[in-house]
């Protein structure tokens, strides 16, 4: 078993019309044993920028703390929030710095940039960025997430339709992966609000 699959995870980010959604499952496991059913995998950097961290749970928490520290330093120096593109480069640099003993994480970054244009990207464990204009996925359920998102995604969705699409894609994908699941956690972010929802899924 890969170290990336040790805790199990499912992460997906999707763009809509001047908005984006990011969703994760809620299971924390040790291989096939479930430890917690309310584990947070999506973190808020600021009101228009979120990061989801899949992979080894302890590394994800360490990496998040380092990112918050670096973002706060940036806010103090620049007196503004970081743009999503800048933050993606920061994540990439921090991961590449540790390439010989990497954080076993696959981040998913989603944010609203200039003129409310949604930005999503994912990187591998040593910081190689993969940009996308529709959706990005990560975690043990990524194969089934790719299939579900490919079939359900439409361009320029309004926030309500985007929420429905990402929720159905997440729930149907984690049902096909025994290492993730136990409900979902969804954020839909528009220029004016952040809407957080908890999904109930199969409890097995």
Automatic annotation (TrEMBL):
- Family matches, as CDD domains: proteasome_beta_type_3
Q: Does the keyword Chaperone apply?
A: no
Please give the GO cellular component terms listed in this UniProt entry: cytoplasm; nucleus; proteasome core complex, beta-subunit complex
Recite the UniProt keywords alphabetically. Cytoplasm, Nucleus, Proteasome
> Where does it live in the cell?
Cytoplasm; Nucleus
Name any Gene Ontology BP term: proteasome-mediated ubiquitin-dependent protein catabolic process
Query: Gene3D superfamilies of this UniProt entry?
Result: Glutamine Phosphoribosylpyrophosphate, subunit 1, domain 1 (3.60.20.10)
Keyword Cytoplasm set for record: yes
Entry similarity comment: Belongs to the peptidase T1B family.
Q: Please give the subunit comment from the record.
A: Component of the proteasome complex.
Quote the PANTHER family the UniProt record gives.
METALLOPROTEASE TLDD, PROTEASOME SUBUNIT BETA TYPE-3
Q: What is this protein called?
A: Proteasome subunit beta
